[in-house]
Amino acid sequence: MKFEAVTIKDIAKALGISTSTVSRALRDSYEISPETKQLVLECAEKLNYRPNPIALSLKEKRSRSIGVLVCEIANSFFSQVINGIESVAYDKGYNVIITQSNESFEREIMNLHSLSSRSVDGLLVSLSTETNDLSHLEMLHKKGLPIVLFDRVTDEIETHKVVVDNFKGAYEATEHLIQKGYKRIAAIANSEFLSITNERLAGYKEALNAYGIKYNKSYVKHCFYGGMVFSEIEDAVNKLFTLKQRPDAILATSDKLSSGCLKTLLRRGIAIPQEIALAGFSNSDLAELLNPSLTVVRQPAMEMGRAATELLLQLIENKRPVVQFEKRILTPELIIGHSTIL
């Protein structure tokens, strides 16, 4: 049986009045008597009438919905970002439509086309690992669709951006490893296309330099899909162990990479931190419950979601074109676990 939503016609039929009278009563028009308005409202409640959002969007030229694109919903960092987005959006009367690219450029394009065709009022976008052509986003941006970029951003689109201080997070994690006596520190990172990869590796390199440790290119391994393909992480770790001077510590630069590195090392029977130390980026609450507990850079994900949504709603509701944009940089926190302390 096909579901059919209750319409103004159903209310009009039930009360024996015209649809125009029902419509005006629902709009609280002065033309309709208080008694008739009360009858219409009671009937609408009884029939569980809800205004058609598509019809409203056509009338108001606004859908009161925003689209969100992330690489993966089943990721503690992005799930927390989404919680932050929804906490602001729903409070302001906006619905949220969430999509995921699964790190696919093609799927990113499909999702953005789908969201824009639904007449969303704006977009919150974190780029996929495969994205190095931004023409699909630039086209929507030039047409006037409000867009805010978060976490994985690009300088090629002039709009509001919300990021974490990735340099600081990686610098402090690397510095912590050095101060604990580790000298041969490897890094397992995401795709070289991503802004977060370049910023985190820059922090890692600068910490090595500050402590007089020579940067060794062979100690840096990239996982293009950032841990979504587990075999990538296994391969990266295995290559590190084939080096003549194998590393005594690993910095993993994302949530999936951190958990994947831990899993790979434990499968190999490697004692952590006795044989090799491990630090990473992770927002998972499980990091402190693992054995050993992980040393991690925790990002303010909820705050990122809230900030990005507030900036997007400013773009949507501003009556004049916005020409000055903000790049908001949030501060991460280094949480020390037993994976780096002998």
UniProtKB/TrEMBL annotation:
Flavoprotein as UniProt keyword: no
SMART domains, sorted: HTH_LACI (SM00354)
Coiled coil: none
Record-annotated HTH lacI-type domain positions: 6-60
Xref: Gene3D superfamilies: 3.40.50.2300, lambda repressor-like DNA-binding domains
GO terms of molecular function: DNA binding
The keyword Oxidoreductase appears for this protein: no
Alphabetically ordered keywords of this record: DNA-binding, Transcription, Transcription regulation
Protein name: LacI family DNA-binding transcriptional regulator
Organism: Ferruginibacter yonginensis
